[in-house]
Write a structure and sequence with these properties.
A hairpin with a 3-residue loop joins strand 1 and strand 2. The relative contact order is 0.18. This protein has two domains: 266 residues, Aminopeptidase, CATH 3.40.630.10; 114 residues, Alpha-Beta Plaits. The longest helix has 21 residues. By secondary structure, the chain is an alpha/beta fold. It is 32% helix and 24% strand. The protein contains ten helices and 16 strands. It has an eight-stranded mixed beta sheet, with helices on both faces. The structure holds zinc ion (2 copies). The site of one zinc ion (ZN) has 4 residues, from loops. The site of one zinc ion has 4 residues, from loops.
């Protein structure tokens, strides 16, 4: 990996649109994969040092937590404490774009906009360090490994909320499906919980010419796969939506040998404990039962990796209010906004501390994780303003005349 080089726009302590864009482009050029965000964390640490905001690094790997206490806070008190979180990591995708700020790291790219999220959080840090006359404390959480690495959970296992208590946590994510600067909010689940499912069908294989003398694991596995989809359609109430996708299927090596074992795996996405319980309690029995009826056996492993992302009502109302105050368009379930079936590890933080995860529309023709995707710089100012307004509402920042 190349060195990220000299870059210190925060020396000017400005949050002009140009400097936000410059920071975003710099971060985009030097993306790093989950738990390898060393240069990225060093860049964040540099910026926080320049802003004179104390921080601790190395939390849950490359994570950083910075803390800014308002000057209007009563002596020896912290006041209300709120946290804002961003992700540090990029994806194993080769960047096909040829714009000047394209990725300089072969095979790695910020295709989820975490470069933009980091920039917005640094913009908030810059803004609050210059407008510090608030009553309370703001924490800035820079989290590793959102993309499948559960970095949020790792930070929590490293004592995130014990070492740095918070009463509310907030995180935005850019959202290509919404128009630029439209804020998408909803109380309750906004992103699905994710489960992995792994199935292994084992029996006695044999010659392809004599299936009657053995058990045909491939044929059994295909029946199981079809019955699993029937299960999703017939056993789950329509009020508890869930999807199952088997995405990998492996077994057999020759055209005349019935293999002893066939394996397949995939993902389940759902929004609540009812669907999770039905699937976990009943689906393994169905799978094992089908295998048994053909004289084979099956092993089933269903494991949660990210819980549903659930926003608390008061924090969500506060985000909507902040968006209204700034004159931004707000999308809600009443205007047709729907939760996403994808998952998000901020869900772990929301299980412990009430808060809100919300979307900031960015438009564009490419969705998240698409090779051509790029964060829309035009939403950077709104992102910073939105975070600042959320902080103002949550902490009632004292206005002072200058
Ligand atoms: Zn992503
Ligand atoms: Zn993301």
């Amino acid at each position: 990996m190349q060195n990220s080089g000299q870059f210190a726009p925060f020396e000017r302590l400005t949050i002009s649109n140009q400097s936000l864009e410059a920071i975003r482009h710099h971060l985009h050029q030097y993306p790093e994969l989950r738990y390898e965000e060393k240069q990225t964390a060093a860049f964040i640490a540099d910026a926080l040092n320049t802003l004179n905001i104390p921080f601790e690094a190395g939390i849950g790997g490359t994570g950083i937590v910075a803390t800014l206490r308002g000057t209007a806070t009563a002596q020896n008190e912290t006041g209300t404490i709120i946290g804002f979180r961003t992700e540090l990591d990029a994806l194993p995708i080769t960047e096909p774009n040829d714009f000047p700020h394209r990725s300089r790291h072969q095979g790695v790219k910020h295709a989820c906009g975490h470069d933009g999220h980091m920039t917005i959080l640094l913009g908030l840090a810059a803004y609050l360090s210059e407008n510090r006359d608030f009553d309370g404390t703001v924490r800035f959480i820079f989290q590793p490994a959102e993309e499948g690495g559960a970095g949020a959970k790792r930070m929590m296992e490293d004592g995130l909320f014990q070492r740095f208590p918070m009463q509310h946590v907030f995180s935005l994510h850019n959202w290509p499906e919404l128009a630029p600067n439209t804020v998408g909010v909803m109380t309750g689940p906004i992103m699905a919980g994710g489960y992995t499912i792994e199935v292994s069908v084992r029996g006695t294989g044999g010659h392809g010419a004599t299936p009657y003398a053995c058990t045909d694991q491939l044929n059994i596995a295909v029946q199981i796969l079809n019955q699993m989809q029937s299960f999703m359609a017939r056993r789950l109430p329509p009020f508890n939506p869930a999807v199952l996708s088997i995405t990998r299927f492996a077994g057999g090596e020759a055209n005349n040998v019935i293999p002893d074992e066939v394996r397949f795996d995939g993902t389940i996405r759902l929004f609540d404990a009812i669907a999770a319980k039905i699937i976990q309690d009943e689906m393994p029995d169905l799978i094992k039962g089908i295998a048994k009826s053909w004289g084979a056996e099956a092993d089933v492993r269903i494991e949660e990796y990210y819980p549903p992302t659930i926003s608390e009502k008061n924090a969500t109302d506060l985000v909507a209010q902040a968006a209204h105050n700034l004159g931004l368009a707000v999308a809600t379930p009443e205007t047709g906004l729907r939760p996403a079936m994808t998952s998000e590890d901020f869900s772990f933080m929301l299980q412990e501390v009430p808060g809100c995860y919300f979307w900031l529309g960015q438009g564009g023709e490419h969705g998240l994780h698409h090779p051509y995707y790029d964060f829309n710089d035009q939403i950077l100012p709104a992102g910073v303003a939105l975070y600042a307004e959320i902080a103002r509402l949550a902490l009632q920042i004292v206005k002072h005349q200058s």
